[in-house]
Amino acid sequence: MAKKTKMPMNENFESSLSRSGFTKICIDMLESKAWMSLKPRQKGLYLTLKSKYKKNPRTGEDNRNEIVMTATEAKEQYGDLRTFRADIDILIDRGFIKQTFSGAPFMKANKYGFSDKWKLYGTDNFYIPEEDKRYKKKR
User: By percentage, how much of the chain surpasses pLDDT 70?
Assistant: First the structure.
């Protein structure tokens, strides 16, 4: 029988619980040009999306390309969906996330995935393919 791993103890300034989950952000990301170019609201949105990331330690399976933030959740956090969509577009344009499924044609929630293109932000090799961008209705 596999031994169950315990979550590490939290410091009292980190959580109101002695043990709880956490969202990992590495120092090199925090110090990157791409991260520095974000506004605090966009950093908060990224952290919210990152908090939805789950990985099964036994199987290694994860949901890195299945991150969903519903319109209801976005309205709760933002109040205005236009601002939410603009911030999602900025996270895509900086290479932090990509849209993996457009729910717009089907009246369903969009799905997002994490990208590592932020590492190249500000270099000649930085490029965001059209398929990574959010679907926009043609007017």
Answer: 89
Looking at the domain assignment, is residue 24 inside a domain? Answer: no
C-alpha dihedral, 78 to 84 to 90 to 92, nearest 10°: 120
How far is residue 112 CA from its own chain's centroid? 7
Average pLDDT over residues 99-106: 88
Look up the domain containing 121 and give its range: 40-55+79-132
User: Strand pairing partners for 67?
Assistant: 112
Q: What is the pLDDT of residues 104-132, one digit of tens each?
A: 888 889 999 999 999 999 999 999 999 99
Record the tokens describing residue 122, joined without a space: 């500000």
State the average pLDDT for the chain: 88
The three state secondary structure string of 49-68 is: HHHCCCECCCCCCECCCCEE
Model pTM score: 0.86
